[in-house]
Amino acid sequence: MKQILIYFNSxxxxxxxxxxxxxxANKWTSNxxxxxxxxxxxxxxxxxNKKVSTKSLNLDFNLDMTNRIHRIIQxxxxxxxxxxxxxxxxxDYSFDYIYVATPLNAMEVYMTHxxxxxxxxxxxxxxSYYGYNKIFNRxxxxxxxxxxxxxxxxxxxxxxxxxxxxxTIYIPHLTTFLAxxxxxxxxxxxxxxxxxxxxxxxxxxxxxxxxxxxxxxxxENWKLIIVGKGEEMDNLKNYxxxxxxxxxxxxxxxxxxxxxxYKKASLFVFTSxxxxxxxxxxxxxxxxxxCISYDxxxxxxxxxxxxxxxxxxxxxxxxxxxxxxxKYIDLTVVDxxxxxxxxxxxxxxxxxxxxxxxxxxxFKN
Length: 365
What we know:
Elements: E1 3-8, H1 16-28, E2 33-38, E3 53-56, H2 68-92, E4 97-100, H3 103-111, H4 117-120, E5 121-124, H5 134-143, E6 149-152, H6 155-163, E7 168-170, E8 190-194, H7 203-212, H8 214-220, E9 223-227, H9 233-242, E10 249-252, H10 258-262, E11 267-270, H11 279-286, E12 291-295, E13 310-314, H12 318-330, H13 333-348, H14 352-362
Parallel strand pairs: 1-2, 1-4, 2-3, 4-5, 5-6, 6-7, 8-9, 8-11, 9-10, 11-12, 12-13
Helix pairs in contact: 2-3, 3-5, 11-13
């Protein structure tokens, strides 16, 4: 049985990449021996089945998720020690393929000089092509042409990387939740959004729109729940306090039983600046929740079909976003449920088996 190493910084955070890695690791154990190697020793946020072997480089990789500058400095400080410890690890263990989820992790594998990256290194994309800074773009330009495969979860990014001549394959992410047999009734007046609290996710923009619609929101008794944590927490809390909307907006931390939050919602709103895929959109749709999202590079357009399972709004069109929020609020429950059934059908038609078969071709199984 072929052996796959998944190398990532930490599985402690409750992020989208960590969710994707957990889903893949659990499914891959049906055909492969899977090892997850992290830099730190944090408990895994998402569960892994017992067949997955877990190892650590035993580094102090406790990133400051409340401050982006601190986090960048911490990341680069860990780079040299990561390469050194990873080199020792890869000399002690042999793997047929190494899966990484960031350009920096890919560079660390390459710099050990212990692996033929042209035959073993699989780099999975999790950010939009347009979402990287200059430093990471340089890393990508250096390491991506050398890798065995670049796996892109969106059609847009796949086309971009193929045009650059990289050995690219299109593989969407697995769904986390199967479509519920009993989808949400959509008769509650609760909108939710889920994601790390950062400037790229633009929750502050969402709050501003919610405030602009305050009269409508209060009249119709709607509320917004933001699920997440991150460096924008203080700014968001301050905005809520200053604008006196704490009775119609709540921020709650990530939780393992996120399904309980989804089950109460009637609408999912998404305001990211860039999005490599948009896993939370699929998660919401599994419960029959329609989604309103900006049409940003690269993921939402592969999931949200305008006027079918939600609304896809041109990026930065705040007026359009607010208009569609009002439009959805004014829909009858029956009309909301039609969108909700289409959302659920989107997940039912999301072919996890086909996705896994494509991964098998990557690993030549």
